[in-house]
Amino acid sequence: MSDSPKAGPRIKVIKDGPYLVRGGVPLNEERIVRGPDGEPCRWEKGESYPDKESYSLCRCGASKAKPYCDGSHVEAAFDGRETAGHGPYLENVERTVGPGIDLTYSEEFCACVRFCHGGKGAWSYAEASGDPEARARAVEEACACPSGSLVAWDKTTGAAIEPACEPGISLIEDPRSGVSGPLWVKGAIPIESADGVEYERRNRVTLCRCGRSARKPFCDGSHLAAGFKSKP
Ligand code: FES
After folding, report:
1. What is the mean pLDDT of residues 177-201?
2. Top mutation candidate among 83, 228, 229 for ligand 1, by most atoms within 8 Å of CB
3. pLDDT digits (tens, 9 = 90+) for 173-182
4. Confidence band (pLDDT; 50, 70, 90) for 96?
Protein backbone atom coordinates (compact mmCIF):
# COMPACT_ATOMS: atom_id res chain seq x y z
CA MET A 1 0.00 0.00 0.00
CA SER A 2 1.45 3.41 -0.91
CA ASP A 3 1.68 6.27 1.55
CA SER A 4 -0.93 9.01 1.13
CA PRO A 5 0.58 12.14 -0.43
CA LYS A 6 1.84 14.75 2.06
CA ALA A 7 -0.40 17.81 2.26
CA GLY A 8 1.23 20.98 0.98
CA PRO A 9 1.87 24.01 3.15
CA ARG A 10 -1.31 25.81 4.10
CA ILE A 11 -2.54 28.40 6.62
CA LYS A 12 -6.11 28.50 7.80
CA VAL A 13 -7.46 31.48 9.75
CA ILE A 14 -9.64 30.20 12.58
CA LYS A 15 -12.65 32.36 13.47
CA ASP A 16 -11.69 34.54 16.49
CA GLY A 17 -8.83 32.12 17.05
CA PRO A 18 -5.33 31.26 15.84
CA TYR A 19 -3.70 30.49 12.50
CA LEU A 20 -3.68 26.78 11.88
CA VAL A 21 -0.53 25.94 9.93
CA ARG A 22 -0.29 22.62 8.10
CA GLY A 23 2.19 20.94 5.80
CA GLY A 24 5.42 21.06 7.85
CA VAL A 25 6.02 24.79 7.37
CA PRO A 26 9.41 25.80 8.88
CA LEU A 27 9.16 28.42 11.63
CA ASN A 28 11.96 30.74 12.70
CA GLU A 29 12.62 34.25 13.92
CA GLU A 30 14.13 37.09 11.90
CA ARG A 31 15.37 40.25 13.54
CA ILE A 32 15.52 43.68 11.99
CA VAL A 33 19.00 45.21 12.04
CA ARG A 34 19.04 48.99 11.80
CA GLY A 35 21.72 51.08 10.10
CA PRO A 36 23.40 54.29 11.31
CA ASP A 37 20.39 56.32 10.11
CA GLY A 38 18.16 54.27 12.42
CA GLU A 39 16.28 52.67 9.53
CA PRO A 40 16.20 48.90 8.90
CA CYS A 41 19.05 47.78 6.66
CA ARG A 42 19.20 43.99 6.88
CA TRP A 43 17.74 40.85 8.44
CA GLU A 44 19.45 38.67 11.01
CA LYS A 45 18.44 35.08 11.74
CA GLY A 46 17.05 34.54 15.23
CA GLU A 47 15.67 31.57 17.08
CA SER A 48 14.52 28.45 15.20
CA TYR A 49 11.55 26.40 16.29
CA PRO A 50 11.15 22.61 16.11
CA ASP A 51 9.86 21.14 12.87
CA LYS A 52 6.21 20.15 13.19
CA GLU A 53 3.74 18.87 10.62
CA SER A 54 1.06 21.19 12.00
CA TYR A 55 0.80 23.85 14.67
CA SER A 56 -1.38 26.78 15.75
CA LEU A 57 0.09 30.27 15.96
CA CYS A 58 -1.33 32.95 18.24
CA ARG A 59 -3.32 35.61 16.40
CA CYS A 60 -4.76 37.56 19.35
CA GLY A 61 -1.46 38.49 21.03
CA ALA A 62 -2.61 37.16 24.41
CA SER A 63 -1.07 33.67 24.44
CA LYS A 64 1.41 32.95 27.21
CA ALA A 65 3.03 30.35 24.96
CA LYS A 66 3.78 32.61 21.98
CA PRO A 67 4.31 32.12 19.16
CA TYR A 68 1.93 29.22 19.69
CA CYS A 69 -1.74 29.49 20.64
CA ASP A 70 -2.63 28.43 24.19
CA GLY A 71 -6.36 29.11 23.94
CA SER A 72 -6.14 32.59 25.55
CA HIS A 73 -8.24 34.04 22.72
CA VAL A 74 -11.31 32.57 24.43
CA GLU A 75 -10.71 34.34 27.74
CA ALA A 76 -9.67 37.51 25.90
CA ALA A 77 -12.91 37.38 23.86
CA PHE A 78 -10.77 38.07 20.80
CA ASP A 79 -12.59 39.67 17.89
CA GLY A 80 -10.56 38.33 14.99
CA ARG A 81 -12.90 39.43 12.23
CA GLU A 82 -11.14 39.58 8.88
CA THR A 83 -11.55 42.99 7.29
CA ALA A 84 -9.02 42.70 4.45
CA GLY A 85 -10.38 42.35 0.95
CA HIS A 86 -9.73 39.35 -1.25
CA GLY A 87 -8.86 41.41 -4.33
CA PRO A 88 -5.49 41.04 -6.02
CA TYR A 89 -2.52 43.17 -4.98
CA LEU A 90 -2.41 45.03 -8.28
CA GLU A 91 -6.01 46.19 -7.95
CA ASN A 92 -5.07 49.02 -5.61
CA VAL A 93 -1.47 50.18 -5.96
CA GLU A 94 0.37 53.45 -6.53
CA ARG A 95 2.89 53.12 -9.34
CA THR A 96 6.17 55.03 -9.52
CA VAL A 97 7.64 55.00 -13.01
CA GLY A 98 11.41 55.42 -13.11
CA PRO A 99 13.88 55.36 -16.01
CA GLY A 100 15.38 52.00 -14.92
CA ILE A 101 12.76 50.45 -12.66
CA ASP A 102 9.10 50.81 -11.71
CA LEU A 103 7.74 50.40 -8.20
CA THR A 104 4.26 49.57 -7.02
CA TYR A 105 3.11 50.22 -3.48
CA SER A 106 -0.06 49.03 -1.76
CA GLU A 107 -1.00 50.70 1.50
CA GLU A 108 -3.38 47.82 2.15
CA PHE A 109 -0.52 45.36 2.61
CA CYS A 110 1.96 47.69 4.32
CA ALA A 111 3.21 46.51 7.74
CA CYS A 112 5.32 49.67 8.38
CA VAL A 113 8.58 47.72 8.61
CA ARG A 114 10.36 50.58 6.77
CA PHE A 115 13.06 48.87 4.71
CA CYS A 116 11.96 51.30 1.99
CA HIS A 117 13.14 54.28 4.08
CA GLY A 118 16.88 53.52 4.06
CA GLY A 119 19.13 56.24 2.59
CA LYS A 120 17.11 58.39 0.22
CA GLY A 121 14.23 55.92 0.20
CA ALA A 122 13.08 53.42 -2.41
CA TRP A 123 10.95 55.94 -4.34
CA SER A 124 13.82 58.42 -4.77
CA TYR A 125 16.08 55.60 -5.90
CA ALA A 126 13.43 54.50 -8.43
CA GLU A 127 13.14 58.03 -9.80
CA ALA A 128 16.94 58.12 -10.20
CA SER A 129 17.10 54.55 -11.55
CA GLY A 130 18.78 55.58 -14.80
CA ASP A 131 21.84 55.24 -12.57
CA PRO A 132 22.58 51.50 -12.03
CA GLU A 133 23.46 52.02 -8.36
CA ALA A 134 20.19 53.79 -7.64
CA ARG A 135 18.31 51.06 -9.54
CA ALA A 136 20.02 48.35 -7.51
CA ARG A 137 19.17 50.12 -4.26
CA ALA A 138 15.49 50.49 -5.26
CA VAL A 139 15.32 46.76 -6.05
CA GLU A 140 17.13 45.85 -2.82
CA GLU A 141 14.75 47.90 -0.67
CA ALA A 142 11.66 46.58 -2.47
CA CYS A 143 12.83 42.97 -2.10
CA ALA A 144 13.53 43.46 1.63
CA CYS A 145 9.90 44.47 2.25
CA PRO A 146 8.40 41.51 4.13
CA SER A 147 4.78 42.39 3.42
CA GLY A 148 5.25 42.63 -0.33
CA SER A 149 3.50 45.99 -0.24
CA LEU A 150 6.43 47.33 -2.26
CA VAL A 151 7.32 45.52 -5.48
CA ALA A 152 9.93 46.38 -8.14
CA TRP A 153 9.14 45.72 -11.80
CA ASP A 154 11.64 45.10 -14.58
CA LYS A 155 11.18 47.66 -17.38
CA THR A 156 12.26 45.25 -20.14
CA THR A 157 10.27 42.16 -19.25
CA GLY A 158 7.48 43.80 -17.25
CA ALA A 159 7.93 41.07 -14.63
CA ALA A 160 7.97 41.55 -10.88
CA ILE A 161 11.42 41.23 -9.32
CA GLU A 162 10.80 38.99 -6.35
CA PRO A 163 13.24 37.61 -3.79
CA ALA A 164 13.61 33.82 -3.82
CA CYS A 165 11.48 32.62 -0.91
CA GLU A 166 11.12 29.00 0.20
CA PRO A 167 7.83 28.31 1.97
CA GLY A 168 8.26 29.28 5.61
CA ILE A 169 7.10 31.60 8.37
CA SER A 170 9.37 34.06 10.16
CA LEU A 171 8.46 35.80 13.39
CA ILE A 172 9.59 39.39 12.97
CA GLU A 173 11.36 40.98 15.92
CA ASP A 174 12.61 44.55 16.09
CA PRO A 175 15.03 44.58 19.07
CA ARG A 176 16.15 48.20 18.63
CA SER A 177 12.55 49.42 18.87
CA GLY A 178 11.70 46.87 21.54
CA VAL A 179 8.67 45.60 19.65
CA SER A 180 7.65 42.37 17.97
CA GLY A 181 6.24 42.48 14.49
CA PRO A 182 4.01 40.28 12.36
CA LEU A 183 4.34 36.80 10.90
CA TRP A 184 6.28 36.97 7.65
CA VAL A 185 4.76 34.34 5.40
CA LYS A 186 7.04 33.40 2.51
CA GLY A 187 6.83 31.29 -0.59
CA ALA A 188 3.20 31.78 -1.67
CA ILE A 189 1.73 29.59 1.07
CA PRO A 190 -2.06 29.49 0.56
CA ILE A 191 -3.91 31.46 3.26
CA GLU A 192 -7.57 30.63 3.72
CA SER A 193 -9.93 32.92 5.61
CA ALA A 194 -12.25 31.65 8.33
CA ASP A 195 -15.10 31.62 5.82
CA GLY A 196 -13.16 29.36 3.46
CA VAL A 197 -12.12 31.89 0.81
CA GLU A 198 -8.46 31.91 -0.15
CA TYR A 199 -6.51 35.18 -0.32
CA GLU A 200 -4.37 35.91 -3.36
CA ARG A 201 -1.26 33.71 -3.18
CA ARG A 202 1.75 35.97 -2.87
CA ASN A 203 5.45 35.32 -2.47
CA ARG A 204 5.52 37.37 0.75
CA VAL A 205 2.87 38.77 3.05
CA THR A 206 2.71 39.69 6.73
CA LEU A 207 -0.02 38.42 9.04
CA CYS A 208 -1.01 40.18 12.27
CA ARG A 209 -0.08 38.36 15.47
CA CYS A 210 -0.70 41.20 17.95
CA GLY A 211 -4.47 41.14 17.46
CA ARG A 212 -4.68 44.92 16.85
CA SER A 213 -4.63 45.24 13.07
CA ALA A 214 -7.60 46.96 11.48
CA ARG A 215 -6.95 44.93 8.32
CA LYS A 216 -6.91 41.39 9.65
CA PRO A 217 -5.56 38.95 8.88
CA PHE A 218 -2.82 41.20 7.48
CA CYS A 219 -0.59 43.40 9.63
CA ASP A 220 -1.17 47.15 9.30
CA GLY A 221 1.63 48.30 11.60
CA SER A 222 -0.59 48.66 14.69
CA HIS A 223 1.88 46.53 16.68
CA LEU A 224 4.19 49.59 16.79
CA ALA A 225 1.74 51.91 18.57
CA ALA A 226 0.67 49.02 20.77
CA GLY A 227 4.29 48.26 21.76
CA PHE A 228 3.55 44.58 21.16
CA LYS A 229 6.08 42.21 22.70
CA SER A 230 6.01 38.50 21.99
CA LYS A 231 8.47 37.75 24.80
CA PRO A 232 8.57 38.88 28.45
S1 FES B 1 1.40 42.37 14.14
FE2 FES B 1 1.33 44.21 13.00
S3 FES B 1 -0.66 44.96 13.36
FE4 FES B 1 -0.61 43.13 14.54
Report:
1. 97
2. 228
3. 999 889 999 9
4. very high
Q: How far apart are CA 135 and CA 150, in angstroms?
A: 14
Rg (CA), the chain: 18
Alpha carbon distance 119, 227 (integer Å): 26
Q: Mutation test of ligand 1: which of 147, 180, 213 has the most ligand atoms closer than 8 Å to its C-beta?
A: 213
103 close to 123: Cβ distance less than 8 angstroms: yes
pTM for this prediction? 0.95
Q: Are 103 and 151 in contact (CB under 8 A)?
A: yes
What SS3 string covers the chain?
CCCCCCCCCEEEECCCCCEEEECCCCEEEEEEEECCCCCEEEEEEEEECCCCCEEEECCCCCCCCCCECCCHHHHCCCCCCCCCCCCCHHHHCEEEECCCEEEEECHHHCCCCCHHHCCCCHHHHHHCCCCHHHHHHHHHHHHCCCCCCEEEEECCCCCEECCCCCCEEEEEEECCCCEEEEEEEECCCCEECCCCCECCCCCEEEECCCCCCCCCCECCCHHHHHCCCCCC
| Maximum CA extent, the chain | 61
Q: How far is the CA of 71 from the centre of ligand 1 (A)?
A: 19
CA dihedral 117, 113, 193, 66 (to 10 degrees): 170
